[in-house]
């Protein structure tokens, strides 16, 4: 293989033909193995262990048991124990059934996700050809030990870290290092476990096995990456608050009933326990899990298999996507480029390709990567080569470093062709050698700076002298959809950074082609693990600013990828990581969302949260859309569930303290001293409402254009508003119903008859049930009225079913005394049967009031920007609500928006260029297009200046390096650049109006994209200016106070 394109293992770099490559780390002084006996192998296995990696696994029974304890399950267990101790067998049985149903559903969804992970990890059992007891045999690769003699042949996976005994092989290490080209290995070179032999066959000595291999050390980082998920943390916080509120109010009710009401302890305790169980959101985890499970099936249908359900919620909030280059952003396949420098007059690129093909065995399968490149990936028509007769062929040899063919053409003339590294082929050239040498060295250097590799091709003329025909250029190109995917990701507020083990020049060329930016950092400036293998605690503080400012990273090792992800996470970013190789696995595991792309190795798939089954990254954008829709549905449900919990427990709290039925109805034998509701009714409310609310997973929602984050303050305020109105309406209805015998009461004034107390119980059951579901339809539309977004047919159908059943139950409930409380159906009165209708009318009226109050609450918060309701999502950091919350939040201001602006401008420049050169375009139109192009260049420069101004301003100020005047000047610069962008957009609008009619649609679409990007950037700038002004004002006040 030509030395110019060999990229050896790692360690010491050298530069050749303009491209820096690495020398392999050799161990030439080792003693080659001649094979072990079975006894020796068994003894070594005791010392070193099996050639496999330890995996942490949790038994399925333990998963089920863990679902039986926690804030919610513990409340139900306490209630169950109390009910059983009071001999309330039916109520206790219902509680036990609810506990088991919740646990089984949660267990099923969790195990299903775990089984998916196991299926992805499962692959063909690895085998190895090993010499034991003097006999070669295929054996289980997990039984290998250091010192074994193995055979490494073309197409076989390397079963352990091995040292080559003798000979030469080519090894594909792309899964380990990210390098696209195979690595040539000789005696003493270390072939790593996880790589594949592509050419040759050698005997090798096993050096390391299992956890001691290169991949084993990588896997150690996989095992270290663990912790409670973000969604679990949020749900736990919400549940702890709800349970605390419910327990506190229920304890107050218990004390009141015992001390003031003189109720027996057992009776009071039974009532309080039932209120507690009915008020806590026992199904909140099940509904969220079911919603995520449905979302995982939706993603699977679009080419993304979810292996960890909670990652869907984390993808919705993902604001930083770190992507591996080789095989993820690129094709992982060398492709001939259009650029083909010619050094012989009259020769074409096709002539160069033909000569290169003749310097190979074109009638046989390709022997190496270069033959594959020329014969299969160049578009060369091999049938046209058959007119030549190959007389001799010189294969690639490390001492010659080129291939050569001797051929006889159809005219009977004999000639030679050769291909190889440019500096090697140049030594053969005899015609115009001095001139070609200067031109060729300059060209190869220029290509090397861009990361493009080169292959020189020469041919002998009639006199037998070598002539340089030209240079074939090739690289691993980006996938066709990658640039568009990156742009769409940024439109959703996700910053994209490239992380690769490949060389810096190649990384920069790829980043340039994809529009990622030119700030590519190399491994020298990146963090590393501490001596004890632990993650530095100050990782984010030390390296966070450098990492977020970079557009990509090159020549990194798995350790670097892992630490880059960890540094971003420490600073509060929600990080996604894409990759396909073993070298990506630790970072995939550590990221909030690890994404293994199509064709990924088993190690990458096993570490990932999502596995793509379709090539390219476009499915990631769709996954972002789906995950944000799922997030919106979960947020709607949680908002509703908090409101229902609060309204129910507060209703009973106020009812017990404020309304005593016996005082209103002293002559009614059915009226108790305090209002109570049977356990069965409360359980029915919970089961019917929560059971049918799984349909929330199918609801219509609009995905956010910015990364989602939990603004719990807003969530609690809106839930409190919804709960307050629902609770107030329930209290008023209960008061009016109890007071219905009063001639001056509300019922009498409305012409309604007296309602018996046993029907009041079923009336309140229906009221609470109806209010609960109507609250959902209010909660799901957020700041809009309930009619602003139509519900899905499935949700509407489930609500209709549940409300219908609740109404039927309330109307036909038989006369009975469950828990000693008199109850009777609303339609079972001989004199009046329309109570259910009035309850429905009453609930709808209050629902309209409730929805109006919700909209008003959102309006007030938006008007005053309370709890950062307007601006929190513009802060592109999950752990920050304002740019001053975290040290790097300010440095990230406008980071995505300015990059997106540059991409949109570049896209517009391409579009305008096509229009200017389109056939039929007159001179006036061309002039307009050139004017637009000039405006776009100005706009791009303005975007870059804006990014620098916004990024550096607060960073300098927080470091103490910027005075107030500097801050004002920096803000002024940002405002000036924004004004320039608006001016350029206005000029473009005028130019488009004068453009040819057929050119306007494309130009207008381009302009619309620019305007949208500019609007987002301006919104971020406005927030920054507002916060900066508030911060300066606060600092001045503090200075005055200190004086």
Describe the model.
The chain crosses the membrane at residues 61-82, 88-108, 234-259, 271-294, 638-659, 679-702, 714-738, 794-812, 832-849. It is a multi-pass membrane protein. Keywords: ATP-binding, Hydrogen ion transport, Ion transport, Magnesium, Membrane, Nucleotide-binding, Translocase, Transmembrane, Transmembrane helix, Transport. It comes from Tetradesmus obliquus. Residues 15-88 form the Cation-transporting P-type ATPase N-terminal domain. The chain is an alpha+beta fold and 1043 residues long. It has 33 helices and 25 strands. α18 (539-549) links the parallel β21 and β22. The longest helix is centred in the C-terminal third of the chain and has 43 residues, at 1000-1042. 50% of the residues are buried. Residues 1-25 and 953-971 have low confidence and may be disordered.
